[in-house]
Amino acid sequence: MPRRRDVGTGPVVHRTARVGLRLTRHQQHRCFGLLRSAGDVWACVLEVNAWHRRRGDKPVAGYQELCRLLAASGPGIFGELDTTGARSVLRRYSDAWFSAAARRKAGHAEVRYPRRRRGLMPIRWYHGTFTLTGRRLRLPVARGGDPLWVRLDRLVPYPPETVRSVTLLVDAGRLWIDVTAELPITTYPPGTGPDPARVAGVDLGIIHPYGAAHPADGSALLVSGRAIRAEHRLHLTDTRHRRRATATHTPAKGRRGSRRWRKIRRRARLVEGRHRRRTRQALHEATKMLIGWAVSKRIGTLTVGDPRGVLDISAGRRHNLRLRQWQIGRTLAMLQDKAALAGIRVHLVDERGTSSTCPACHQKISKPRGRRMVCPHCAFTGHRDIAAAFTIATRTPGGATTPHPPACTGVVTHRRAGRHLPGARPARRDPRRRPLAASGSLGRRRPAPPPPVMGSRSFTIVTEDPQPHRTQTGQRSWTPH
């Protein structure tokens, strides 16, 4: 059970960090034993409810009822798993059951109750039941067992006094610890914190995860996610090649498979887990850039266009795959979480029509196929995602549009997410493909040399550097024509 907080304390948020483990073979065996015991607890609850369902009795889904059944089973039933860890499994089952019941009551008949067995179940221990000292963590076990001390591969990024729970789990065949901390909302000196009256619009996308615009001063932020998209594409290509090469080793239905097949599956799980960690880290970086920009502008309210309505529209095999790889729900969760920690409010509004509405004259125009929007009514020219962000900023949480048009001139800050991906620095679109070897350093782009007297080149004289002049690193002035 989470601890009870004092009424006088300020608002807080809960953040979770995943930390790896450095274990000996004996410690790894004990950790997997705890996870298997938690799976046995889950299977017992499923079996008990199956008996009730056959007899037509009321299912046992309440947390208190499940705890009584656990106490009646007696000690030593589930190996080294202690009572606190077993109760965390019961709470997970109770939450899943009541969540499914609420969704079915709301009309979602496709939602099912938890009835699938799991071999390894995550275990959570709350504050006061574990000991965290530096990089050493003591996990509680059943009475009479030897203490289980494990070593973390890095320090916990939160102060020790703020840690409220730890969760032991396995992901892609590797053991992890999820550390959850209770952090107070960031406080700022007087006159420097986010102002709720300052509103910025945020447009979510695939090529650009975030396109933000502040109508007050006309500034904007554009975060490029091309490295994330390239990571998805290359991972999909690798998966296809791997499955095509290993198709002959696939066991028949109902058979366990050979040792070689188990090694192939283990390697596939490792690659999948690494891909998920890379894309998740890139999304965190993009969200951190957006929140940092909002804090620097003292923006206290982010009006975000909710694009989840497009998920119900079938647009072909390729585009449906892009939408599945977009991870809209995770992006919104990261944005709301980091905004709450920074003291910024987030409002979700309908984004329908924002990419086909001119932010200067509010006239409907045809949606551009590229990234450049040109309005035939007022001759406005600008980036499509930033123009949509300006339009979203004018929409109140109720969905109405304010009569004041936004300012569309200012500085556009460009950022790139996913620099940790393999080879993201030397290549622009493909984060794994290295550029061709060139003789000498490329250096700074310079004007082309004057053409020779005879030849096939143009005789146009180059009088200035073709690069745009920038005021600061990563910025350029954006003036609509």
From TrEMBL:
Report residue spans for region: Disordered: 240-260, 414-481
Q: Where are the transmembrane segments?
A: none
| Keywords attached to this entry | DNA-binding
Q: Where is the signal peptide?
A: none
Question: Looking at the keywords, is DNA-binding present?
Answer: yes
Q: Which InterPro entries match?
A: Cas12f1-like_TNB (IPR010095)
Q: Polar residues bias: where?
A: 469-481
At the top level of its lineage, which domain of life is listed? Bacteria
Q: Please tell me whether the keyword DNA-binding is annotated for this protein.
A: yes
**A Pfam short name:** Cas12f1-like_TNB
Which GO molecular function entries does the Swiss-Prot or TrEMBL record give? DNA binding
Q: Which residues form the Cas12f1-like TNB domain?
A: 331-392
Q: What name does the UniProt record give this protein?
A: IS605 OrfB family transposase
The organism is Paractinoplanes brasiliensis
